[in-house]
């Protein structure tokens, strides 16, 4: 059998019903049906068409509608691994992902701290995207955890998702190994994750136990409600299989005094913001078109619990904030209109995050 076993299974099992084609933006762009795409990948067409597997957001929506339980994203990931292992030139700017991953997985960004109690049962894992969005929000979240869970320590690093999405299995496993080794060193058995992408990678691709920050906060949040207006909830696509996370984010907003509205493609049907799967590095125009489409679909000031989603849709005249902005930021008007960060701004914020948390 071909090395592309998942891909071959799609060739053998796809019934060509068309449901995934209706639910997905990527598939109609690149093929007549997923069976046809899988056949091309099995026969090695990925060598001449390396951009194709890197145009998928790998959001998992196809799997939610497939009557025979096929996941095109799993096939795409398998092909990306093969592209990387065969050292085939990567499309677009994918090669630059390695440089960004190098910093957030380095000792320059890394920080681990024990729980205030000295008995570290779990560790707060803010991740690199939230750190790149707002150092102050990460710091406020860490201070809240200190007051409300004395057995929670801190682990600041990257989950390895960019390496995984690139197809670099060896580097991903190295980064994951460091996370697990640090947890073992401190005696932690669980991570409190702020990012749905981190949560998905730990839960689906490793044996690292997680609970979302929003679930933890929702259990103990007691701050008085304030007037914070009406917001349209955008669920990150990687939260689709985490209903507890989705529910907790909404309940926190209601406790804070917000009116939360639901758009199309929400909850279990969550739609990608356009930047998932490193698509922006492959074809920035295509990724931007997807972000614009989602921004228009939301139709109001958005709130989300994914920093990358907020940043992706801001350039398309869609004001928005992170859930943590509403809980901790005193100037919501400024936050919702703030420009999206570029790479240099994100790195500056990540360095500031480490500085604040080091105190």
UniProtKB/TrEMBL annotation:
<keyword id="KW-0479">Metal-binding</keyword>
<dbReference type="InterPro" id="IPR009051">
    <property type="entry name" value="Helical_ferredxn"/>
</dbReference>
<dbReference type="InterPro" id="IPR017900">
    <property type="entry name" value="4Fe4S_Fe_S_CS"/>
</dbReference>
<dbReference type="InterPro" id="IPR051460">
    <property type="entry name" value="HdrC_iron-sulfur_subunit"/>
</dbReference>
<keyword id="KW-0560">Oxidoreductase</keyword>
<keyword id="KW-0004">4Fe-4S</keyword>
<protein>
    <submittedName>
        <fullName>(Fe-S)-binding protein</fullName>
    </submittedName>
</protein>
<dbReference type="InterPro" id="IPR017896">
    <property type="entry name" value="4Fe4S_Fe-S-bd"/>
</dbReference>
<keyword id="KW-0408">Iron</keyword>
<dbReference type="InterPro" id="IPR004017">
    <property type="entry name" value="Cys_rich_dom"/>
</dbReference>
<dbReference type="Pfam" id="PF13183">
    <property type="entry name" value="Fer4_8"/>
</dbReference>
<feature type="domain" description="4Fe-4S ferredoxin-type">
    <location>
        <begin position="46"/>
        <end position="78"/>
    </location>
</feature>
<dbReference type="Pfam" id="PF02754">
    <property type="entry name" value="CCG"/>
</dbReference>
<keyword id="KW-0411">Iron-sulfur</keyword>
<feature type="domain" description="4Fe-4S ferredoxin-type">
    <location>
        <begin position="4"/>
        <end position="35"/>
    </location>
</feature>
């Amino acid at each position: 059998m071909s090395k592309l076993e998942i891909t071959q299974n799609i060739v053998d099992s796809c019934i060509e019903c068309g449901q995934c084609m209706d639910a997905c933006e990527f598939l109609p762009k690149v093929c007549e049906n997923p069976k046809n795409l899988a056949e091309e990948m099995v026969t090695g067409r990925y060598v001449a068409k390396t951009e194709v597997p890197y145009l998928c957001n790998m959001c998992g929506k196809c799997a939610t509608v497939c009557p025979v339980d096929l996941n095109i994203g799993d096939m795409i990931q398998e092909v990306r691994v093969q592209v990387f292992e065969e050292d085939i030139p990567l499309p677009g700017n994918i090669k630059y992902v390695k440089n960004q991953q190098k910093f957030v997985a380095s000792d320059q960004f890394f920080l681990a701290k024990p729980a205030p109690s000295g008995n570290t049962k779990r560790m707060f894992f803010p991740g690199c995207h939230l750190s790149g969005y707002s150092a102050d929000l990460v710091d406020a979240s860490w201070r809240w955890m200190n007051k409300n869970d004395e057995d929670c320590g801190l682990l600041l690093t990257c989950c390895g998702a960019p390496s995984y999405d690139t197809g670099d299995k060896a580097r991903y496993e190295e980064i994951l190994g460091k996370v697990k080794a640090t947890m073992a060193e401190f005696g932690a058995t669980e991570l409190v994750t702020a990012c749905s992408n981190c949560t998905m990678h730990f839960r689906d691709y490793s044996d690292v136990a997680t609970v979302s920050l929003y679930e933890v906060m929702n259990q103990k949040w007691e701050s008085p409600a304030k007037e914070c207006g009406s917001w349209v909830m955008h669920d990150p696509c990687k939260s689709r299989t985490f209903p507890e996370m989705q529910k907790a984010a909404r309940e926190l907003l209601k406790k804070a005094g917000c009116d939360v509205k639901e758009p199309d493609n929400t909850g279990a049907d969550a739609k990608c913001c356009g930047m998932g799967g490193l698509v922006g590095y492959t074809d920035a125009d295509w990724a931007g078109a997807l972000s614009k489409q989602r921004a228009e679909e939301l139709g109001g000031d958005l709130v989300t619990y994914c920093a990358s989603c907020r940043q992706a849709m801001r350039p398309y005249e869609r004001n928005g904030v992170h859930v943590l902005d509403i809980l901790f930021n005193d100037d919501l008007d400024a936050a919702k209109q703030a420009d999206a960060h570029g790479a240099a701004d994100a790195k500056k914020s990540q360095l500031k995050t480490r500085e604040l948390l080091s105190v």
